[in-house]
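step=predict obj=Polyamine aminopropyltransferase n=275
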Amino acid sequence: MDMWLKEGQIENAAMTYKIKETLVRKKTEYQDLAIVDTYSFGRMLLLDGIVQTTIKDEYVYHEMIAHIPLFTHPNPKKVLVVGGGDGGAIREVLKHPSVEKAVLCEIDKEVINECKRFLPEISCALDDARCEIFVGDGIKYVHEHKNEFDVIIVDSTDPFGAAEGLFGGSFYKEIYDCLTEDGIFIAQTETPFYLPEVVKRVYNDANAVFPITKLFMAGIPTYPSGFWSFTVGSKKHDPETVDLSNSIDIDTKYYTKKLHKACFVLPKFVEDLTK
Ligand code: AG3
């Protein structure tokens, strides 16, 4: 019997994957968590039925959400990841030798535990001595830490339901205060194909708080439309014009210095959302 998983984040469109095996499925305090093995993308993490990451394409998202801000900042020492309990963003952050401490603030400890068990390729850096894990609410954590982080990465689920508070002006103001004087913030900000109004609203909210706000795109096959946006808010350093000629080489599969510049060149319909 064939078993198919259907992700239906978007009304009237869906993505389907043929499943080999369900490795874990449980209701946590916060959500329905599943890790399944699929034929086309390998093991996959789902939260409330929404695909979060897969073994086959996770590198795109994790490299871009980490390396764009970390290579933009001249000397990132303290980094905060809000959400991201799978550990993929932390793994990329810790490829930067300047980073002395990377804090993971994840609300659901089951996500961390199950990803450590079933997605070791992604969660491998969570045991690094420079990584500090804090299980709790990201909004509260950011509010209680002022002027502390050089880079803040918001690696959240979609902006509906539980993660709604992690998008929008009031949270971005808190992020601004949690950053050091030349700090940089980045968030995953959905697809402009299906959710242009969300992309536009989030961009405008960030732009109202940060002197420099930039949007870029990356190709992520397992997210709706495969065409995903990220928004960067920066106090001083411009991610698009930063000089990368002396930046160190790290091992990546998607990110390159050339792509760092090129990803900010937007198709017209996306550029229009930033006006
Ligand atoms: N965070 C979720 C990205 C949004 C996915 N949305 C969707 N599939 N509809 C990814 C967590 C990876 N660390």
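step=describe
Residues 9, 50-53, 61, 84, 86, 88-89, 155, 157-158, 188, 223-224 surround AG3 (CB under 6 Å).
step=end
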